[in-house]
Amino acid sequence: MGNLSILVISKTAQLLTQLLGSIPSALRGFEGNVEVLCSWNGSPEEEQKVLCPDNIELYFSQRTPYHFATNCNQLSRQACGDMLLFVNDDLILDPGSITAAVETLAHNNQCGIVGAKLSNAAGLVGHAGILFDHAYKPFHRYRDCPLDHQLTERTETVPAVTGAFLLTRANDYANCMMNETYINNGEDIELCLAYKLQLGLNTIFCHRASGHHPERRTRGSQMQDAGFGNDNSEDLARMRRFRQQFVSALSSEDRGHELDLAGREIDWCHQRIQQFERAKALAKETEALAAAELKSGVEARKKAVEARKKKAVEARKKAVEARKKAAENNWDQAKRDAEMEINEARLLSAKARQQSAERS
């Protein structure tokens, strides 16, 4: 398989340590020598915090300010490997992913660059190759597609791949390096197009090479409209011009292949639209059910209030009747008591008259 140089730019110990920790399993089955060269942009204190597995040779080969294309080109000149693997430091490689990419490169003489399937922070497809729209602007194909979707489960030629995982032969790269005039981004995409135009070599997306890449944690700004972050008009204009030149030089066979890729992307877009429509209908149905439940709850509370009100009225009515009855009972008792007192007074008066008559 040859020897491999892994090239990375970093300024953050945590990210670089995480990447380095994923490399041994990603090399499973690889029999060549491996070195990791880092262009360090961080502080000396941060550099001391980097942890590297014992079976990985890590070299901080340069300590220069960040500029992606310049740093990558400088690292490539210092590399000893027959193959170069450019990776972002915020990438976590899956087991066997590097070996799969190396095998793809080794078994295809017309292949110059190999890219990988990368998942985003949501666990969906963040990168599965790069296509271009009618205005020559790049975009990630199958973005937010499930990782195991059949569309992403094929190794095939694509116009370009991201520099977050880009494998190539050292000799080829020495003859066609990244364009250092780019400010923020785009040099990796132009590199893929340049390989085709200048070296006659294809860029291949390898679905068996994979990893997790949250995105936008390494570079400060990228192209917003294409899903690449903040748009830099100068970089985008440069890339669009190069893509236009690329298209004009394509053979009829290559044009047909790109049309096929575009057709499958359209199919995926239609699937996404259908998914959105189903989700929208489900959300509407859920909203209607919630509204019905809310209405039912309001009516239930209204009935409960009316029932409590009715009970209160009945209770008050019973209380009034009870007090009235009590008052009537008290009046009858008082009347009986008065009649008894009158009768007793009459008896006493009659008795007194009787006694008076007897004395006389």
User: What's the alpha carbon Rg, rounded to whole Å?
Assistant: 43 Å
- SSE-based structural type: alpha/beta
Oligomer: single chain
Count of β-strands: 12
Assigned CATH class of the domain at 4-249: Alpha Beta
> What is the approximate shape?
elongated
Q: Please give the alpha-carbon distance between the first and last residues.
A: 159 Å
Write the H/E string, N to C: EHEHEHEEHEEEEEEHHEHH
Percentage of residues in helical conformation: 40-55%
Q: Sheet bearing the most strands, described? A: 10 strands, mixed
Low-pLDDT stretches are 220-230
Portion in strands = 15-25%
Number of helices: 8
CATH topology of the domain at 4-249: Spore Coat Polysaccharide Biosynthesis Protein SpsA, Chain A
CATH-defined architecture of the domain at 4-249: Alpha-Beta Complex
Nearest-integer average pLDDT: 86
Give an account of the 3D structure.
The chain has 360 residues and is of the alpha/beta class. The protein has a domain at 4-249: Spore Coat Polysaccharide Biosynthesis Protein SpsA, Chain A (Alpha-Beta Complex). The chain has 8 helices and 12 strands. The protein has helices at 13-26, 44-47, 68-78, 97-106, 170-175, 187-199, 233-248, 252-359, and strands at 4-10, 34-40, 58-62, 83-88, 92-93, 111-119, 125-127, 130-132, 138-140, 156-158, 165-169, 202-212. The strands form 2 sheets. Strands 1, 2, 3, 4, 5, 6, 7, 10, 11 and 12 form a 10-stranded mixed β-sheet that branches. The longest helix has 108 residues, at 252-359.
